[in-house]
Amino acid sequence: DDFTVLLGMEIRYFATTNDYLVYGIDEDFVRNNGNMLFKGSRRFYELVKKSGAVIVQAHPFRPYIHRANPKYIDGCEVFNGKDKDKDLNQKAQEWAKKENFKIVTGGADYHRESQRGNVSGIITDEKINTNADLVRILKSGNYEINMAEHQ
Questions:
Q1: In what order do the strands lie in the sheet with 75-80?
Q2: Fewest CB within a 10 Å sphere: which of 16, 108, 129, 151?
Q3: Cα Rg of the chain (Å, integer)
């Protein structure tokens, strides 16, 4: 039926292996902030906050990832559809509780056809039409994470 596509970003700063997901940005954010790969976590977080968007660390317990400083993220991805090792998602859920993150997300991490069947996202009773809707719902916590088994 009805399908809404919103601009978001997955970013990895220069000289790090950590990935971050940014929700609530617009094209002006991308155009006006130069090469964001060289900003680093603190400076990039400041840009995200100034824009009204939110940033979460993606798949924080993969072997090559270092947990981000909680001061520079709004939350973390607690379910990643590509992580076949359920312990990685479980550790992310425990970390989110420990750090008292208000924003947690789930994602399919579907980058290529071979990953078809990866399922995740958020489930909410509210229709999300805009980035402002998405950010408001994420900040409210009025949603659930779709943690479906791999299909």
A1: 8-11, 20-23, 54-57, 75-80, 103-107
A2: 151
A3: 15
Where do the domains of the chain lie?
8-146
Q: What is the rounded distance in angstroms from the CA atom of residue 103 to the CA atom of residue 105?
A: 7
Backbone phi, then psi, for 146, in 5-degree steps?
Answer: -75, 110
Closest CA to 44 of 28, 30, 58: 30
0.85 surpassed by pTM: yes
Strand boundaries in 44-94, DSSP class E = 54-57, 75-80
Count other Cβ atoms within 10 Å, centred on residue 73.
Answer: 23
pLDDT tens per residue, range 99-131: 999 999 998 777 767 666 667 889 999 999 999
Q: Are 98 and 68 in contact (CB under 8 A)?
A: no
Token pair, residue 104, equals: 């947690």
With H, G, I as helix, E, B as strand and everything else as coil, classify residue 71: helix
CA dist 68 and 58 (Å) reads 10
Helix (H) or strand (E) holding 146: strand 144-146
Task: Give the burial class of 17: count Cβ atoms within 10 A of its Cβ; 0-12 exposed, 13-18 middle, 19 or more buried.
Answer: exposed
How do 75-80 and 54-57 pair as beta strands? parallel
